[in-house]
Amino acid sequence: MKRSQKSWIEGVFNKRECSKIIPSSKDPHRCTAGCQVCQNLIRCYCGRLIGDHHGIDYSWTISAANGNENEQWSVEKHTTKSPTDTFGTINFQDGEHTHHSKYIRTSYDTKADHLLHLMLKEWKMELPKLVISVHGGIQNFRMPSKLKEIFSQGLVKAAETTGAWIITEGINTGVSKHVGDALKAHSFRSLRKIWTVGIPPWGVIENQRDLIGKDVVCLYQTLGNPLSKLTTLNSMHSHFILSDDGTVGKYGNEMNLRRNLEKYLSLQKIHSPGLLRVPGKPLILAKSTYKKSKK
After folding, report:
1. CA–CA separation, 14 vs 34, rounded Å?
2. Which residue ranges does the record assign to the TRPM SLOG domain (predicted)?
3. Which neighbouring-strand residues pair with 85?
């Protein structure tokens, strides 16, 4: 990537990090700043352990002692933005095959026009003639084999014949995994590229450290810890927009970014006779239950 492109990305796209510790524990014990118990066992409302808030003063213990413990943590009030330091290319190793995916970590309130510029100009994607937005549960579920076959064939055919973008949560569980399975079966039969965009929350992604770096090419481990509440990225997605609201282990705000991007895409003109707009088709497979983060 040219220096000017790298500078543009750092100048436009931001990450979010918690800027004030408000403990979620109701433990009434009074401790001093830097208490090892608090650092390693108690979490802030953002979802991080107290000890993972590097560079933030632990003065919350004093305010709690003075009776201010009822302050409500929120994304808008208690996170700060700074230039993103996480973008580049992921190399997913899948047996004999390697899949390459572009990615970026960016704030959930990033402007849609900036995202589309990134996708078209920097990532060299083609403006879609159709957007297929796949929604559903983030929990794993079994899909009957016949239904899975119909879903897979229909999804791939629709994307191939229309030049569509498929947009999902991009994670290795639930509906996103079923989409990935469909694309995996397709990839062994055809060389045609299907643009598949995953938009998960940055804070639910396991093995984050593999991804941090500016304009890096990284190997990403898709095998997650079975005991972890986090999840891994699905290797069959061609692009990832990692929506960051400063929280860990929480879903919800990434849908703001996704809806805004899909709406903005629907307003774009297809360069064809009549200058048609990009249509969007939502596809819902399962109900979703997740813990939302507070604005």
Report:
1. 29
2. 102-279
3. none
pLDDT at 273: 43
DSSP at 123: S
Helices (H) and strands (E) in the chain, counts: 8, 10
E-state strands within 78-163: 79-83, 86-94, 97-107, 131-135
The pLDDT of residue 281 is 56
How many angstroms separate the CA atoms of 237 and 68, rounded?
A: 45
Q: Which of 233, 229, 227 is CA-nearest to residue 208? A: 233
* 131 vs 127: CA distance, rounded Å: 10
Beta partners for residue 12, in sequence order: none
| Binned average pLDDT, 10 residues per bin, the chain of 295 residues | 80 96 69 66 89 74 51 93 97 78 98 97 92 79 76 85 91 90 75 86 95 95 85 95 97 95 87 50 50 54
d(Cα 27, Cα 17) in Å, to the nearest integer? 25
Give the number of other Cβ atoms within 10 Å of residue 188's Cβ: 7
Q: How far is CA 147 from the centre of its chain?
A: 27
Other residues' Cβ atoms within 10 Å of the Cβ of residue 294: 17
Let me know the angle formed at the C-alpha of 133 by 132 and 139, rounded to the nearest 5 degrees: 135
